[in-house]
Specification:
71 residues; mainly alpha; 0% strand; elongated
């Protein structure tokens, strides 16, 4: 039972370190917190592929522009 409580406390401290450590902690500890958060963010962003979205109205917009040019 004690190990479960200890793991919970360590988890909470880790989340606090990552979440608000750069504003609370001085010097290099704050910088380490900021770097850790940025690394986690980049990892999560890297999980999702870059997808270029197509405009479903592109053909219609081009047709409208063409009609407007003829007038």
């Amino acid at each position: 039972m004690r190990s479960k409580n200890l793991l919970t406390i360590i988890g909470i401290l880790a989340l606090l370190f990552i979440g608000i450590g750069d504003t609370v902690l001085p010097g290099s500890l704050g910088e380490a917190s900021k770097n850790t958060r940025q690394s986690i963010n980049q990892f999560i962003i890297g999980l999702f592929p870059d997808k270029e979205f197509t405009n479903p109205n592109e053909r219609t917009e081009e047709a409208v522009e063409e009609v407007n040019k003829k007038q």
